[in-house]
Amino acid sequence: MRILRPKSPFKVNEFEYDPNAFALRKEEISFCVQNLFHERNILIYGPRAIGKSSMGIQLQKMLMGDKTLLTRCDIDSDFPKYLCTRIPCNKQDSISQVAYNILCFLERQYNKKLKSINYKDKKYFLKFNLGVLQAGVETKIDSTKYSPTTIATILTSELANALKIIIESGIYQGINVMIDELDYLSPDINFAHFIKTVYEMLSTEGAKHISFIFAGNTGIYNHLWKGDPSFSRIINTVKIPILKAGELEFILDYAGATFSPPFKIEDKGKELIVSLSSGFPHIPHLLGDAGFKVMKDESNMTFDDIKIGIDNILMSDKKEEYLSVLREISEEDRELITNITKYEQEDKTLPVEIPIEWIKEEFGDKLVNGKSTKSILDSLVKGGYIKKNKERAHYVFSEELFRVFITLARLEREEVLINKGEELEYEKIKNFANENLLNEIRSGKLDLDTDLTHEERKEVIKKLRKSITNSKSTRKWEETEWFDFL
Asked: Which pTM was predicted?
């Protein structure tokens, strides 16, 4: 009878709630802690999946009394204890919905905490007057029946009342609200002006122990600033950087060391995972989990386990994600991003750095549907698919695993043509294979491995792996592009 494997120690599609497991960004954490200590609001921003939500969650755990993060960052400070809640935004949210969620989540959090502790006097339950906000939520007419100023006034009044109750209870001394995924809010909502109004009203009422953590993708500050330039006066911003190699290895080592029974990951395997992570914390969890699922020796995750795991990921979850990305971008973007994966790096390290000079030599100012190579590259940079290094001499894929996926698909098409005995020169085979790949992406019929035998596919994987020998994880790719300014 088959025995199911125990739950993986890697957190796929989960936030990091454990302060001990959090891959520290000490400089950024210290900046945030200093501002929160002085009850300043902070805006955390960066690319998707860089760890903004996990950072906010860790900061709120610290505000709720867990000193683990402070200890790990060598910070010696006593914080007052805050009642904290996190509010995720979505595309359907109105101003009244956001305000309603803040109060509703706070009330739920407070009453849940009160019930869970041995507290002699439990009469201090929060009960908000949500009538007007509820009406706005149900009828979706907050912008007509209830103006943003009216909603701000109600929210301010209820927050001030909540602050009074929790201080009287003696459990908490302040309130912190994290409003996450701000970029999901409709562009029609002037959130910056609304929250600035709320904060100014709170200050006027003397409610000085209420602070906010905001989080959103790259570009969110610019969007908020356009909504109300004076929003900048009430926040301090912090950009979340990509992780260094050692920080990525920490994620892998911690998972193995804290699992029962503990297991080690071969250095060569760790190096491969780090080289494919592009500095993002979710990739080590994703690839570590994939290797864990096929691990033969429960005490040791081998390089082969990790290679098999990566193959499985590229054939399943990531395949669908990356195909969706390729189908959604424009035809000219899709053609160029596929073509630049043809570049072969001599030193065989990851990430592959594609010289701008090579792109110029290969494609020049070739027009695709009336668009120049340069304008297409700018479009791919602005979309977050590729980026330039600080010296502006190379491009690199923002997610190296995405480049590997496209390369694998292209190599498979070449192998199919070669094995069919096509009477074509090799360069023609490569060009024809590339066109064949683009057609399959457009039609949605891309099916990796369909035309290859198991042995043939092993040869393709072997070719791909020959192009990888080492990692050069570095933060030199943390550029501030022309579209990403404060």
From this structure: 0.85
Same-domain status, 233 and 255: no
**Dihedral sign for Cα atoms in the order 422, 424, 429, 431:** negative
The pLDDT assigned to 484 comes to 43
Whether residues 144 and 75 fall in one domain:
yes
Alpha carbons 233 and 398: distance in angstroms, whole number: 32
| CATH code, domain with 418 | 1.10.10
pLDDT tens for 329-379 read: 898 898 899 889 988 887 777 788 999 999 988 887 766 667 888 899 999
Please check whether residues 332 and 188 belong to one and the same domain. Answer: no
Q: Please provide the size of the chain in residues.
A: 486
Neighbouring C-beta atoms of residue 454, cutoff 10 Å: 7
* Rounded-to-integer distance, Cα 250 and Cα 266, Å: 14
Q: What is the dihedral sign for C-alpha 345, 252, 63, 82?
A: positive
Residue 176 — φ and ψ, nearest 5°?
Answer: -130, 130
Number of domains in the chain: 3
Domain boundary among 318, 353, 368: 318
* Interatomic CA distance for residues 257 and 111, integer angstroms: 36
Q: How many CA atoms lie within 13 A of 184 on its CB side?
A: 15
Summarised one tens digit per residue, pLDDT across range 239-258 is 998 899 999 999 999 999 99
| Cα 100 from chain centroid (whole Å) | 26
Cα–Cα distance for residue pair 95/151, rounded to 1 Å: 8
How far apart (Å, rounded) are the C-alpha atoms in residues 442 and 328? 9
Q: Are residues 387 and 438 in the same domain?
A: yes
From residue 229, alpha-carbon distances to 43, 192, 213, 233, 485 in Å are: 15, 9, 18, 8, 14
Q: Is residue 377 part of a domain?
A: yes
177 & 310 share domain: no
378 and 449 fall within a common domain: yes
Q: Which two tokens stand for residue 277?
A: 């992570």
Facing residues of 236 across strands? 42
Coil, helix or strand for 241? coil
C-alpha dihedral sign at 20, 21, 26, 28 = negative
C-alpha–C-alpha distance, residues 281 and 15, integer Å: 10
